Structure formats: structure tokens, C-alpha cells
Structures
1.
Amino acid sequence: MNELGTRLKQARIAKGFSLEDLQDLTKIQKRYLAGIEDGNHTMMPGAFYVRAFIKQYAAAVGLNGEELLEQFKTEMPAGETAEKKQMPETFTSRSRSVARTAPSETYADIIPKVLVALFIVLILAVSWYFYSASTNRDSANRPAEEEGVSVPYEEPVPATPDETEEAAVEEPVEKPAEPTSVLSLKETKGETTTYTWQGTANPQLEIVADGPSWIAATDQNQKELTSKARVMQAGEKETLDLAKVDRLHVRIGEYANITLIMNGENIEYTQPLQTQNIVIQLTNVE
């Protein structure tokens, strides 16, 4: 056990926290927290994550992580250079909004012309109706003698109940509206951004890596949903089935290298924090 790990463990015990309590507070897996206390840094994903996890641990027990790292810098592994990608100046949602605006303006120009054309067609249809009705009425009022034919009188036969039912007009049955998927931002607190999702009973989350980044995904019971918590490399992709998940927690080490897609819709990052959490609360619509 090294001095830094001893210092952190003493602070945790003084706070009355167990490793399980600290895991819930920091969202860092218990085995990594134990590795920090034991000075076993080889089990970490990399030197960058050692420093990041130590700072989160220190903040949770009321210590200054930066001061601890400076004080015990000789115990730290050799640093890794993590290239940060610049925050895109334009988010995906802005691109979508621009794409949606142009068709709306086009529709605004076309709709008045369509309405005028429909009005003209309606006038022609009404005129033709009255003309046809007038012609038929004149033919019906013309005396039968003018045609040289006598028209016998026939008593109308009352319609049977079956014929009356067949003649009844069936009312159209309205089809129930199909459920739609809605992803909404709920809140942003610290490193955690929370969304709510309502949609069909088959939600899926696609994780796409454009560069190296730590990824861990768990459900409401802390069960890992990815094949394993790891550093994903550029070109890697993994799809999670969320049909039986009520709450999803995704821990991301380098947000700029990871794209999250929920049933075809990109989940946007609301804050440019290198390490952050994305939480999604799911409600299925049958």
C-alpha cells in the first residue's frame, strides 16, 4: 500500500464510506477504487485514468485531488498524452434544424397555390353538380305523352331489414396512432447529463468510437451491458439492447471520440467535459 492510497483510504474511513458507497458516488468500479488504495495502477486503463480516478476519489472524501497528485507525483505512472478533439462548432442538432428549415419555407410558398387550385376545382365541381341536377329535373318533369309512351304506376316495395342494414353507411374506424420515440434533456449536474426517453418496446443504443476512449455501460442494477468495460479504439462499434433496462448509465473517458445513437437519433453532449456520464431514464410505450 503506498502513501497516497493510505491517505485516501483514511479519508474514506473517516467519512464512514465503504468501497460500495464510494462506487455509487464516483461511478468508478470498486476494483479500481481498491487498486488506488493498494497502489496497484497497472490494472487501470491507462495513466490518464489513474489521475482522473484519483481526483474523483479525493473529491468524494473531501480532499483536494490536484494537491495530492502534486504531493505524491513520484508515485504516479508515466503520463500519457491524450489528444483532445476540439468541440465541434456546430452540433448535429443545428445541422438538422437547418435541414428542416429549408423545406418549411418551400412548403410555405407552395401551400397558398395549392389552396387556390383546390378552390377553383371545388367551384367547377359545384357548378357541374347543379347543371346536372337541373338537366335531370327537366327530364323528369317532361310529360310522358310527349314521348308517346304511357308509364304504368308501380307501388314501391318496402325494403327488407337486411337490405336496410346493407345500405347503411359504415363509419370509418380510426386507427390508433403509432407510438413515437422522444428523447428529452432532463438535467445537467457536474459531470452527469440526464435524459428521458419514451418510445417503442425495443430501444437500442449504438456506441461508435472515432478514437481511443474508456467506455463502461451499466443498468439500474450496476450490471455491465457492454461486452466488457474497456478502452474502445477508432472504428469499434457496439450495440446495446435496452428492452429490459429502466435506467442506463454510460461512463465516457474521452467524449469527443465517442458517438451515442439512440434508435437512429444522435445523443448530443451538452458540456465539453473530457470525462463525463450520460444517464438515460427509459419509459417504453406499448
Note: The two ends are 53 Å apart (CA to CA).
2.
Amino acid sequence: MAGLKSLAKDTAIYGVSSIVGRFLNYLLVPLYTAKLSAASGGYGVITNMYSITALLLVILTYGMETGFFRFVNKKNEDPTIVYSTTLISVGVSSLLFILLCFVSLQPISTFLGYENNPDFVAMMAIVVALDSFQCIPFAYLRYKKRPIKFAAMKFLFIIPNILLNIFFFVCCPWLLVHFPASVSWFYNPSYGVGYAFVANVICTVIQQFAFYRELTGFKYKFKKSLWKEMMIYSFPILILGIAGILNQVVDKIIFPFLFTDQNEARVQLGIYGAASKVAMVMTMFTQAFRYAYEPFVFGKNKEEGSKKLYADAMKYFIIVSLIAYLGVMFYLDIFRYIIDKSYWDGLDCVSIVMLAAILNGIYFNLSFWYKLIDKTIWGAYFSGIGCFLIIILNVIFVPHYGYMACAWASLIGYAIVTILSYVVGQKKYPINYDMVRIGKYCLLTVVLYAISEFVKIDNILLRLCFKTILFSIFIAYIIKKDFPLKQIPIINRFVKK
């Protein structure tokens, strides 16, 4: 129980940077969708470019983040040498990536459909190279159990990024009208979506300088034998990482290639990307949990009763995920205002996207069995199968059904890899998950959501009140079964009375 309390504490702190940070970035969603109408396809450009950079980030870290955690916890390895070897490896590869992109900038831009804006590609190449390098100092902070510093570094990017976006998309247009001389020398209103990338580059560079303490104060050593071991361990993680991230973003990457009308593709992609942001609360929780869970698992692996901890962590992860799912779906009438009304047509995909995100989180929890027994190749198999299915389903159905096919393809792909990982994992590294209790929570979620959809109430206030009652039933069931009030400090005093 002490281990779970520690995990919960770290998850909460990491959640400050992940959940609160992404919530603050949510401020950019209404900003972008208001300033870049759905018909303009501007938000489609953002969705497409950030999906590509997400894939490149996985490639440029090539599993070394997880490899760092694995080897830094080995008793026969010097943590400083592991850290410096990892930094040098990722740093050199990131530098080579930037050089390659700038040498081949125009051909790459043309292939991606940005032949008129190669500067977009150049800026995002710089961002993804620096982000991949910064993954290692961030991993080092997690290893040193410094979640507060970790969160602070995240906010160092988030807050300036929000302010710069407000400056470029709100302040500059206003100043151009009322005080043109103040901004006309650098601001071009026709550049539009490009200023989102400008802000990103500036903030990423600022964050890089802020890692001064994590990048100095020790002697850089590159241990070749260690690096080879890490590469052997990390390569399968790279493969499964590529497949895993493709499961999340491949639809947004290949979407423009599935339409003959590129403008229509960017319009639909923008609507899908904006609507998916409403479902991002699930991704935020999963990410916060991941930051705390990865070092927790490797650190507890050799302790007695560790499998019981993993089983409990899975159960509580699913419980909180279902709370988030019902919370978003029951109050979608409120959450829809995150995006501009011109994007509301895409809200039908929110429930599907959230279910896919839940399955992704469950798959992440399950994935540790092959990491702990050094059989990461299994993850590559599972994710590869899921990725293949998602790509095939997108290619077949997107031209006919648009972005809704993207949502369903992701859900099916994650369902398959989750089932495969569970079945094989129970044979290779069996963990006694409380499937009965988990099944009851899932069934109750389905029933409550079905009731909310079946009962039609036109008045929005009455509809929200009715769904609040349904939500309260779910919370009450959780409290009764897994979070009894008498065990919660302070509250238990009132319950006993």
C-alpha cells in the first residue's frame, strides 16, 4: 500500500505539469479555432505538423528514454556514465537530423505538401530535435525523483508558449489596426498559422537553456560497451514506439494523402483534430500516470508483492479512466465550447476517441511484462499488428467516411493490441488482475452512458442535472467498493461521527 501511495503522490505531481499544463494549452484550442476557421484548413495544418513531429520524436529518442531507466537501475552501472552516454548518443543523432533536414528542406517540404512554406518544416525540425534531446534530462529528473523540478521545466515551455500565441494571434492583429508602425516591421497577417510554429521554436530554445544544471557539473563519458547494450535493449522499444505512436497519429499523417482535394483534406483534418482535443483529458491522465509508473515499475520489480501492486495499479487506472470518460461525455454540452462552433460537426467522434485512449492506457499498463523480462520484441509485434490494422482501415474507409473512419480505426487497433498483450502476458508473466471488479465497473459505465443517450431531454439544464445524477451513481459505487470514506484521512472523522 505504501508503494501505491508513493505512485499516487508522484502521479499527482507529474499531473500538475501534464494535466494542468495541457489544460492551459487548451486555451490555445479555442484561440486557434477562433482565429483559424474550419473552412481555412489552418488547424488542419497544425494537426498534421504536430502529428509528424510526434512520430519523429519517437524515432529520434529510439527507445533510449526507457533504456536509460533500465540501465541506470542496474547495480553494476554508474548512473552518471549511463546518463552521459545516453545524452551523447541522443544529442549526436539529433544534430545529424537537423543537418539532414536543412540540406533536403525543399524536397521534404514538397513531399509533405508544404512546398510554399518550407519554413514550417524547418522550424518543426528544430523543435523535434531539441525535444528529443530534452527527453533525457527529463528522464533524469524522474529518475532522481524530482517531480517538482520536472513540472517547473514543463511550465517554462507552456506559459511562454501561450503568451506568445496570444501575442501573435490576438495582440498583433489589434496593434496592426490601431498602431501599425509598432508591429508592421515584423508581423505579416497572411503568415497565419506559421506564428504557432514560431512561438514553439522560441519556447523550446528557452527550455533548452534552462536545462543548464542537468547538462553540466559532471564529466561526459561515452561508454561504448554500455551504449551497445542499451541499443540492443532499446531497439525493440523503438520499433514498438514507432508502431505505438503511429497508432495515435498515423491517421492524421496520411489523411492528406487519401484525398485528391488537399484543401478539403485539411478542413476535415482540422475538424477531427479540434474535436479530438475535447477527448484529450484521457490522454493527459494517461501521460501523467506514465511519468510516475515507469520508474515505479522498474524500481519495485524485485520487491516481494510487486505483482499485486501492478494489479492494483491497473484497477485504479481503469477506475479513474472511466470517471474521466463519463465526466466528458455527460458534460459534453459544456466541453464543446473548448472549440469554435464551426468545428462542432466533429463532436460525434469524441466518445470513440476517448474509448481508444482508455484502451491505449490499458495497453501501456500491460506492456510492462515484456519490459521487465527483457522481451521487448513482443511489444513490437503487438504494436506492429495494431498499426497495420489502423493504416489499412484508414486507407480503405477514410476516402468514403472521412474522419469518423479515423476514430473507429484507432479504437479497433487499440482493442486488438490490448487483447493480444493481455493473453500473451498472462502466459509469460502472469499477473492476477481483478477482472471481476474491473468488469463490473465497465458494465456500469456502459449502462449509465446508454441511459444518458436513450433518455432525451431538450432543456440543457435539466439534461445536465439528469446526467449529474447518473455520474453521482457511478461515484457512489466507487466509494462503496474501492474508496470507502472511513479510510480517507480527515473525512473519516465525519463519517465515524
Note: The first helix runs from residue 2 to 26.
